[in-house]
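Dear all,

This email documents one entry for the complex benchmark we are building for the journal club exercise. For each entry we list the sequence lines for every component of the assembly. Then comes the predicted three-dimensional structure of the complex as a token string, followed by one or two observations. Please use this as the template for your own entries, and keep the labels exactly as they appear.
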Amino acid sequence: MAEIPTAAISRLVTYLRILEQLETQDISRTSSSDLAERAGVSAFQVRKDLAYFGRFGTRGMGYTVPILKRELVRVLGLNQTWNVVIVGVGRLGQAIANYPGASDYQFQYVGLFDVNPALVGQQVRGLTVRHTDELRDFTRHNTVDMGFLAVPPEHAQDAAQALADAGVKGILNFAPVVIQPRTLERGGPQEISDEWRGLIVENIDFLAGMKRLAFYILNPHLKDAPTPEDPA
Amino acid sequence: MAEIPTAAISRLVTYLRILEQLETQDISRTSSSDLAERAGVSAFQVRKDLAYFGRFGTRGMGYTVPILKRELVRVLGLNQTWNVVIVGVGRLGQAIANYPGASDYQFQYVGLFDVNPALVGQQVRGLTVRHTDELRDFTRHNTVDMGFLAVPPEHAQDAAQALADAGVKGILNFAPVVIQPRTLERGGPQEISDEWRGLIVENIDFLAGMKRLAFYILNPHLKDAPTPEDPA
DNA sequence: TCGTGTGAAGTACTTCACAGCC
DNA sequence: GGCTGTGAAGTACTTCACACGA
């Protein structure tokens, strides 16, 4: 189904980050093997990943940092504004809201929501925290592209439904829960509810990360090589 | 190289979480198709993932929740204590330290480290924050299995090196940086430095997650199906 | 009969080798 | 000469179909 591997997209994000770093160091040229080393993958992989989206280099020369950076920004859709709401403004939600780097690519936090009365009305990062019940109404008057979900696990599904109802196009879910699209079962096979159609969910689960880490510490041979070889 | 897919391990963690949830609901039996639906994967996948590690079910009956849970806990290495230090005790580090659920499986935070003088000496979650320079000495007197890295990106590589020098077996890296093992190049091909040999690095990168989300919102057809079908 | 466990088939991803162009 | 771009080969993962045991 996926003509471009999901893993390739993750790597593209890494290449972009490396290019930004090179730019701050006033390095204007790079190559697939240089990028490969910095990203911890093979040079073949770098060239193949880039080839999914175009031809950005010059044979015999390599890549020009600002050009490749510009192209990756375009490919990833980071040359446009993304309006974001955060649902759940506890410690994690606030850490996310204040984490530097989000605004580098026009990710703008436009609304913060929580059910905790102690938080509603407070100022966080220049925004007033609103009650989650106001989310739907808020999106009628404001453009919202994506929602970050940082509520406790037991409220994650309901909060995700609220975001879907509010019409966001994507959810970045930090809760250790599998978000389920609502299904309608009128007789026939299960059909996904309208508000979920085409909605993208991406998960960031650090509890899962620590459990994977535990597993791989005990079974290091099962971990794919950390830094694959470059070609001869 | 990997005889067990990395993705399978992530799914096992998800199955385990589902089993815990079933247990709290006093549901004592399940099946590959039930788990599949809750995890958002196919029932084939569930059976194959479990088969990598053993035969935990009963033909014609399915799985017994507490038994399968116990087996997954054992497989993932969660029936032992894991002593964790956190390097970087800013907003993100504190959110991690206080996130509920880590202690469910004997993950114990034994030390917190930062370079910020305003934080050193403070109490966070019952622990006194120490200066990162003390990390090496700390591990001489205390068992430390893994380190969580929540420092700003520009300090991530150095902090990772400090964790490696301190002898941790794994690093959970929250910084948007590719951690590089130190290499010695005495004449021959690059060789990985001793302290990095066998050290596992797992990344949790939420900035990357938001960029991937942006990409998939613009290119939804490239996202692998959210909830694959069950078998007939 | 039902649902697991598993070799075999199919698909997706990665690695390779080299043609092509600077 | 050097490094990119890319079809082809190889490998890894997923899906399938059915044998097996309760």
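Observations: The CA atoms of residues 92 and 153 of chain A lie 13 Å apart. The mean pLDDT of chain A is 94.
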